[in-house]
Design brief:
Structural class: mainly alpha
Strand content: under 5%
Number of helices: 5
Helix content: over 70%
Shape: flat
Number of domains: 1
Length: 75
């Protein structure tokens, strides 16, 4: 975000982020029985953006911490 502010591209970044979130929400709102496949597809949406790998890394870290809350105390 700091780079986007410096470059004057923050509105474009915000548009991409909201577009990605909207796409992810649409996938997660899938019908019953399709939930697992749509969740996987939704989590993969950010990979198409330059900032996607950082977001996916953040998701993975949060999932890891949620799975083992005691691990966050050790840090």
């Amino acid at each position: 975000m700091e780079q986007a502010v410096t470059d004057g591209t923050l509105p474009a970044l915000a548009g991409e982020a909201f577009g990605a979130l909207d796409h992810m929400y649409a996938l997660l709102a899938a019908r019953t029985g399709e939930t697992d496949e749509m969740t996987g597809r939704a989590v993969d949406v950010p990979s198409g953006y330059p900032w996607g790998p950082l977001l996916q890394e953040s998701f993975a870290e949060r999932l890891r911490l949620a799975a083992d809350p005691a691990d966050s105390v050790d840090r």
